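Record pair follows.
FIRST:
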Amino acid sequence: MASFIVMGTWNTKQGELEFICDEIKKKNHRPIRLDLSTKRTHGKRNLAVDHAISVIKGRLKQILKRDHISGILSVGGGTNLFMSIKLMDHCPLFIPKIVVSSMIVNSVHSFRTYKDVIYIQSPCDFGILNPITKELLSNCVTILTSVREGFPNVVEPSIAVTGFGISDGYYEATKKFWLKRGYHLIPFHSIGENTMAMAELIQRDFFKGILDLTLHDVMDHVAKGAFGKIDKNRLFAYLSKDLPAVIAPGGLDTIAYIPGHQGNQRSLLPYKNRKIYHHDFRLGIKANMEEVVKAAKWIGNILKETDPKRAIFLIPLRGWSYPGEKGKDYYDSDLIHQFGKWIKKFIREEAVIDVDLSINDPQFGLTACKHLENLLKAQG
């Protein structure tokens, strides 16, 4: 018998939530009810919701500590979607999580999380149990109870590598290098959600070493680009453990922008005099010196706090992205020089190494791999 958390507002969706609990029982499992119902506080619903999240977060932590949870299912509208994602942020990776809502498509981008959540758009709203919602919710319970839960069990050691579309020229070389040596190479997209998941896996001792060769999400974080939903744990996770790590500023010359995207944190107007790279539906805006220095300081403060002995910085002198390669629009030797100068203020100088290659040169990937291999060998 497995235990599954059922999340929702029992004061408005009791019919659907009790139906889910019954379906879980039919499969000989145990539902654990987690009521997200709120009460208005002097008419300020947002304060009531925030208060409820805070209180229920404590209950959820108690449940996770007390019981072995095999999965979580949440059902409701927009407020429930918001609350459940906030709460699922506190649930470990690889516990199956399903959110069913009538507002997935037009709202979920506002509540971005790095957790491994399955989102299901409902064809109708909830509040009145009916044949459509019964069929949908029955299927959701089937999915939830059939998804395998548990942290991946691997025998071979693993290396994490970050990348982005404009700085992924090293991928193939790094893949061949580590596979040949019997390692798993696990890629993470430098868009915030993926790299924060990487940070959680690092905290759970999943990796032997880190190739953090693309820091694009750091630039988006400091310059309010499209893919910057990170916090300091993005780097702190491995630097605080002093894991063998090779770091490079891949994509740090570019701010991502998505025209018409509701999640944009600023308009395109301030960028009107910048060089713009058309990637696909996304635009790349050339970062200026102030933004690059700000990123260097953000990274540097984490280096200063953690004082790693087994981390090195490689600075590709011929460019940090495809549009930033020497001879192309984004190339800026002064910007590259200033970044390296600032990083040296926060880490021992010999740990910052200039490499006369582009980030996208396969040889740069091999260079990074050899440095990481040496760090691993020195670790013993």
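SECOND:
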Amino acid sequence: MNREMRRLQAKEEERAKKKRKEGARPQKKERTGFRQFVREVRQELKKVAWPSHQELTTYTVVVLATTTVLTLVIFGMDWVFKAGFIKILERAG
């Protein structure tokens, strides 16, 4: 290792020690009241892009239709596998 690399390494070690010392100090906790919390929540909720009534209805229908289709597919696969398994057991027995 040459001198320049040693100097860089020493500086990095000093910076790391300094950061550890700064991090060891207890952090002050910011305390807020309930009213301020509610005020901030309301401010954040005003920023939300809420869906329109039509979008909400469309999304709800899509979710219900997708859930129904997937439920029927899984039910069908379960029924087919059960029937196949029973036939395999009948042949073996």
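COMMENT: The chain has three helices and no strands.
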